[in-house]
Amino acid sequence: xxxxxxxxEEEHAAAWDDLFDASPRWAxxxxxxxxxxxxxxxxxxVIDLVIDRAELAGLTEFAAGLESEFIRDCTAEYTADKARLxxxxxxxxxxxPERVRRLGSGLLSAGELSELxxxxxxxxxxxxxxxxxxxxxxxxxxxxxxxxxxxxxxxRLRDARGFAFGPERVFGYAWGLSMECLNLxxxxxxxxxxxxxxxxxxxxxxxxx
Length: 209
Hints:
This protein is mainly alpha-helical and 209 residues long. It contains 10 helices and no strands.
């Protein structure tokens, strides 16, 4: 097959059309990315926030279809954590509060969303760390908060092993596998960059096993 980079403009457009036809959800996300990029702002922040929104909404929709209160509750807490992280990162990156509020609608309660978007930007990271870090700990960065959010979800999903049957055990196993893959990625990056192991150790996620 012809490499994507060597396609003509017409072939490139046709390839995107085929992708959109095959995945309406992906098509909607791409259209939203285009619209938001046209409105300006840091392209990386805009793309991250739009994709984070789509990912969290998709995860919530998927969990709702499994007919498991346990999975729905775990997913609701995790998506709230990830939404806080995405919105705070966008604010710290300079996106306007009104825009962040619009893109974050539906991910958090109206009250918390308003608080996160109206609070002075210099206090956002400290508030996030103080509110959501483990007892006795203070996160040093948004990266630490992301790790803590993943670890909290791992702790919650360990209870899935207590279900004799149903989607809970599979859901928990799949989550644990995703964390192992993430840890492998972090370790591989450290080795490839020749960075000290200590730079990665604190970022590793808890094991589900």
